[in-house]
Design a protein that fits this description.
The structure is a single chain. The chain is of the alpha/beta class. The chain contains six helices and 16 strands. The strands form two sheets. Strands 2, 3, 4, 5, 6, 7, 9, 10, 11, 12, 13, 14, 15 and 16 form a 14-stranded mixed sheet that branches. The relative contact order is 0.20. Bound molecules: zinc ion. Zinc ion binds next to strand 7.
């Protein structure tokens, strides 16, 4: 199943079992390296290297290691994000990509749940100094394929203002080729705030190489988002308690607990299951007699 999707919160399943994340290692950089790149004139990305940074928790099936983070934005503020929440589009979305610790990057990419992407939506507001260092390097990667080793900073600086307690979870794919369907998606409910000027700095990046002068106006990277993909039979879960107040909100954990208890009751002694059988058979007999009686009342007897 593919990504991105629209998250319809009225259909999202409330799941109290979704744990909070441990992103403390985002606040470390022990010998780490960062390579900033204008990737193929489509997006800007920071590739992480050096000592691994691990994320834990978030009900992920394993620990995951940081690979890179990149951004999707629009030419104007009314477009930009790949995912939508209740069909609302954010002006930008950041994807922090990780792979499963027990595999290497390329093996993870083709294994179910091999990749974990944390998605953060943006909103325009006050200046966010956490982005100052990253954005100060953008003039060096204006052109397609330009890249630069930058002074490492803590990834935590970019996400520290976000309440990381509540998020949406579903299973999907990479949104760029080869679109492997191996991604555990986490989209945080709370948004990162940056200023209009900071957002406009992303819009200074170009989709052409240095020296490629076509005579036309410069083409800026923008609208680098994939169209929405159908949800099909997938569910979106969330630990956001606000969902409980919404029409159509469901409690996954309670349902699962009910099923678990029912199974335990039926398998522990056998007696409840036997009693259930008796009830079903008894109800069948009563129904049969009722049908007979009603038929008998309206069919004349041969005499
Ligand atoms: Zn992305």
């Amino acid at each position: 199943m593919q990504s991105p999707i629209n998250i319809d919160t009225s259909r999202a399943l409330f799941d109290t079992n979704l744990q909070s994340f441990d992103l403390r290692q985002y606040n470390t950089c022990n010998g780490c390296t960062m390579m900033l790149e204008n990737v193929d004139g489509h997006t800007v990305e920071v590739k992480y290297g050096g000592n691994p940074i691990t994320i834990r928790g978030g009900s992920l099936p394993d620990d995951y290691l940081l690979d890179q983070f990149h951004f999707h934005w629009g030419a104007s503020d009314d477009v930009g994000s790949e995912h939508r929440v209740d069909n609302k589009i954010a002006p930008m979305e950041m994807h922090i990509v990780h792979h499963m610790k027990k595999f290497n990057k390329s093996v993870s990419a083709v294994n179910p749940y091999g990749l974990a992407v944390l998605g953060f939506f943006f909103q325009i507001g006050d200046h966010n100094s956490g982005f100052d260092q990253l954005l100060s390097n953008f003039p060096d990667v204006i052109y397609k394929d330009a890249h630069k080793s930058i002074t490492p900073f803590h990834l935590w600086d970019l996400v520290s203002t976000v309440n990381q307690s509540y998020y949406y979870r579903y299973f999907g794919s990479l949104t760029t080729p080869p679109c492997y369907e191996t991604v555990i998606w986490t989209l945080f409910k709370d948004k990162i705030t940056i200023s209009q000027d900071q957002l406009n700095t992303f819009r200074t990046l170009l989709s052409r190489k240095a020296g490629d002068v076509s005579g036309e106006e410069d083409e800026y990277i923008s609208d680098d988002f994939r169209p929405l993909q159908p949800l099909h039979e997938r569910s979106v879960t969330s630990n956001d308690p606000a969902l409980l107040g919404e029409v159509g909100g469901h409690v996954v954990s309670d349902l699962l607990e009910d099923i678990k208890q029912l199974k335990q009751r039926c398998s522990s002694t056998g007696a409840p299951a036997a009693r259930a059988d008796v009830v079903v058979v008894g109800a069948g007999v009563v129904l049969y007699l009722l049908v007979c009686l009603s038929v008998c009342r309206f069919v004349p007897w041969e005499v």
